[in-house]
Amino acid sequence: MTAFLTNSENRSRIMAMIVAMVRDFELADDLFQETVIEILKNKHRYDATRSFVPWACGIARNVVLQHWRRQTNAPTSGLTNIIADLAMISAEGDDEVWRRERTALRGCVQRLPDRMQNLLLLRYGHNVKGMALAKSANIRQGSIRTTLTRLRAQLRQCIQEKVSGSDLRANA
């Protein structure tokens, strides 16, 4: 069981699902730790003939839903289920596609100017937000949201181009 948890791709996919649900990296990190504890408590329930990541993501989904039930400012119950279902769909995706997209993302980020790489690192690596992000990245606060939206769109397009290109080369 610990071999599954120490695999960086498995950890990344579980964490990505949690982040997709809660949209806060610090909270996601805490919930990931709770998820690991629950996985270890329930390891006897894991069926080794099935894929580990969807099973673990199911546990993560339940941990996040329990967290939301304890919160007063949680999304409405209908919305929590939709978010959880969408996150599970992404977690059950093809492992090879996941690998290609992660590799493409690394390449796309490396092609960005240093200033934009720094902005992404501050926001998504260190969970810096608002005025602190604007100051740290040396960008006007009113421009942060627009800049991040454009960066995410640029990265999505770059990833799609790289993944599509690798599909074409693989089929040639």
Quick take:
The protein is mainly α and 172 residues long. It is built from 9 helices and no strands. Helix content is 81%, strand content 0%.
Describe the protein's architecture and organization:
The protein is an all-alpha fold. The protein is built from nine helices and no strands. It has helices spanning 2-6, 8-22, 25-41, 52-70, 77-91, 95-111, 114-125, 130-137, 141-171. Helix 2 (8-22) runs parallel beside helix 4 and helix 8 (130-137) packs across helix 9. It is globular and about 50 Å long. It starts with a helix and ends with a helix. The mean pLDDT is 82.
- H-E string: HHHHHHHHH
The helix fraction, in percent, is: over 70%
Average pLDDT figure: 82
Radius of gyration: 18 Å
Structural class: mainly alpha
* Major β-sheet annotation: none
Assembly annotation:
single chain
What descriptors fit this protein?
172 residues, mainly alpha, globular
How are the secondary structure elements laid out?
Blueprint: H1 2-6, H2 8-22, H3 25-41, H4 52-70, H5 77-91, H6 95-111, H7 114-125, H8 130-137, H9 141-171
Helix pairs in contact: 2-3, 2-4, 2-5, 3-4, 4-5, 6-9, 8-9
